[in-house]
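QA checklist item 7 of 12: single-chain prediction sanity check.
[x] sequence parsed
[x] length recorded as 248
[x] structure emitted
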Amino acid sequence: MSESLRALCSDFYVNLKLGVKMELPRGRETVLEFFERVRRQFPAMNHFRRYRDELALESPQTDSPHRWVAARLNSVRSGTVNPPDMSEAYALHRLVLEVAPYFMSISPLDVDFVELLFGFDLAAAGNHDAIVYEALLADSPLGKLADSSSLGVTDCQPSLGFSIGRRGDIEAAFEVKTRTAQQTQNPEAAPEPISVYLTLRKFGSVMDLKDMGRIFDRLASVGEELAETRVVPTFLVPLRDAIASGRG
């Protein structure tokens, strides 16, 4: 799936977030041992960085795929950027769910949620909000709010949330993120992309840490189906066409 998606966007990435209820240990040995375990499986991830709210291990930005993992007070996150296929997109995330609970002292009861995000960046100059409006809303009843030439679109970032499954135990969110303001503030910088996010989140503790793999598989399966049947035709194709035609 990733190759077909790459044809529609400039960057494609899959991020994982494991949220916990209690604060994670921040001791030097704990975090370094966790990162060393990750590096043994992914040797290119050898850049250790300290940010304001997190500690991170990354591969070089020039690597394809680019991978990263980060620890915060209440979450462990990981990401894979521009993977050649979906197995590569998921490999780091499966490892994190397997080993993070043991290195970071996460018990089944401590798990708050497991989240999987599919992200799509489309390179676009100009007014992002106007592009999104023309591509997604112009011909809709909501779009009639700005059908007068005297009204300039300054904020158009639609988002929708749904529950999935008979029990509604998975939350799915579709979101479009524009960055016109950043470009206006710094016109000399390279154009920022329009981003489309599909986020799936499963809340609740687990009975056994071995259940984490099953939860991930379900989120990945649902995410791939929604990406192909909803994100591509509803968001990516119209946005790509609007950008290419110069609309907005």
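[x] summary fact logged: Residues 211-245 form the longest helix (35 residues).
[ ] second reviewer sign-off
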